[in-house]
Design brief:
The protein is an alpha/beta fold. The protein has 2 domains: 204 residues, NAD(P)-binding Rossmann-like Domain (Rossmann fold, 3-Layer(aba) Sandwich), CATH 3.40.50.720; 37 residues. α1 links the parallel β1 and β2. α1 crosses α8 and α4 packs parallel to α5. The longest helix is centred in the middle third of the chain and has 26 residues. It is globular and about 55 Å long.
């Protein structure tokens, strides 16, 4: 299937690692021009070198919670991409492991700000560019926690649910001009899970064995964690002209771990 990305312009926030980096790589492969941002300059430099997109790649340091930095990123993308944006992928923010009893007021404020404003600020900044596209789309990277909360991640679950409501509302408000969809992630291999592996109690346990045990403990029917390229493919489909009649939808990428209908 031709997804129709040839010559189009895409922005991926949190694009220097993990799912964001995988999505940027696939977009470049599909012929798109891709702008990525991240907070860590060294990691961003490594991503730029790994992607090797030449003049079809723009990599810029940007904290998506800083309004001025997001505005500067959007201005740079406008100049580099010809004043048009076809796809905005909002992909930022990790999960916070905490119960209600262990989550402070400040933790709540930080988590809600991260999850909401990593969506709100880029959408506000890039909407004028999206309005100039003939097939504009936004894809929000969210978590299965939005619809299936976990008690050991109470703060993140609540924030994720709010973001899902936001994206659904925007799909209605921005229609018929801009499509807005989301992916709901289960467990996907990432730096966060790698760090947990490295901190394991039994240092003799191999990486393969540790991840396999984790998948069993989490009850994942496919018996493994996802690879970053797998949700990235879902992102590309939802954001493409090939998904032209899909808006307000959420695509679960979780290995079958969900329990809701």
């Amino acid at each position: 299937m031709n997804l129709g990305y040839e010559g189009r312009v895409a922005v991926v926030t949190g694009g220097s690692s993990g799912i964001g980096l995988a999505a940027a790589r696939l977009l470049l492969t599909e012929g798109a021009r891709v702008a990525i941002c991240g907070r860590d300059a060294a990691r961003l430099d490594a991503a730029r070198a790994a992607l090797g997109g030449g003049d079809r790649l723009l990599a810029m340091r940007c904290d998506v919670l800083e309004k001025a930095e997001v505005a500067a990123f959007a201005e740079s993308v406008a100049g580099w991409g010809g004043g048009v944006l076809d796809l905005l992928v909002n992909n930022a923010g990790q999960g916070r492991v905490s119960t209600f009893a262990t989550t402070s007021d400040e933790d709540w404020r930080q988590e809600l700000e991260l999850k909401f404003f990593s969506q709100v600020l880029p959408i506000r900044a890039f909407r004028p560019l999206l309005d100039k596209s003939d097939a504009p789309a936004i894809v929000g990277v969210n978590s299965l926690l939005a619809v299936q909360p976990e008690r050991h991640m109470v703060c993140t679950s609540a924030a994720r649910a709010g973001v899902q409501s936001l994206l659904k509302s925007l799909a209605g408000e921005f229609a018929p001009r801009i499509r807005v969809n989301s992916v709901l992630l289960g467990l996907v291999e990432s730096g966060q899970w790698q760090r947990r592996f490295e901190a394991r109690a039994d240092k003799a346990e191999t990486r393969e064995a540790w991840f396999a045990r984790l998948a069993r403990e989490k009850g994942i029917p496919l018996e493994r964690l996802g690879q970053p390229e797998e949700p990235a493919r879902a992102i590309l489909f939802l954001g493409s002209p090939a998904a032209s009649y899909i808006t307000g939808a959420s695509l679960e990428v979780s290995g079958g771990v969900s329990r809701h209908i």
